[in-house]
Amino acid sequence: MTARQRRVLHLLVDEYIQTKAPVPSARIAEGLGLSPALARYELIALEEMGYLTKPHASAGRVPTRQGFRQYSLSLLPPRPLPEATRRRLERALEGAREPEAFLVKVAVGLSGYPALLRLRPRRAPKLLQVHLSPLPEGTLAVLVLEGGRVKEVRLPLVLPQETLRRAEEALTGPLETLPAAPKGLEDLFAHLSRALASGFALRYREGLSEALKEPEAKDPGFLERLVALYEEGGEDLLTPPGRVDVRVGEVEGLALVQAGFQKGEWLGELTLIGPLRMRYAEALSVAFSLSQVYTGQHAD
Fold first, then answer.
1. Where is the signal peptide (predicted)?
2. Which residues of the chain have pLDDT under 50?
């Protein structure tokens, strides 16, 4: 891609994000001072490279997933929020009763997109004991963890008392991780492992209603995928601390802006969810800056 083609692509994506409509070649020619013939030539070249597509023969062009991805990656590293805004956020965060809940609300307010915050300890607490009790429709597992923490989990497994006793004996701690499952206890150990993994994570979410303001929300499939991602919170892996990622179209029709961070013994990730036609520059700036404010870092 030449420098001029890059300028053409970026202008077209900017226009499409703002107007929500296919962009005609005349707008590109005017915006970059090109002749109409040269603008059409470069647009055709970008279309052949897979960055643009033309919905209708007489319409302008729109970015493809590849075009959005190239555009969004060109905005890295993100620009931080203005220093005055950061100072106000720092003061507000210091006085917040629940800083994490406050953080996602601010992320929604500044970006206009649904926000997710996931936190996970760098090291899971040791498992000291497991008590298993039969229930009419499953098994109650009481997990005793170091530090005095106790977690109760209802497992969808109906097992005889003798099997539960064998499992308790195999799970006498302290244990850094669950041992290999004895024969016949594979399903029980798998459920316990999942319960332990999910039990240490903290999740905060806010702003689902913001998605309803997007034109894409008229598509039931788009809404279904967005709500599922919002509720589930994504995969177990977190973005590494200090890194900002853009994930375009990995979930059909959706884009994610993610900032990873570390605060004390906790790893975290702030995610903004939007359509492919996301305001990437704003979202990147918000996610990056809020992760720095939350961890007490200063913009370079």
1. none
2. none
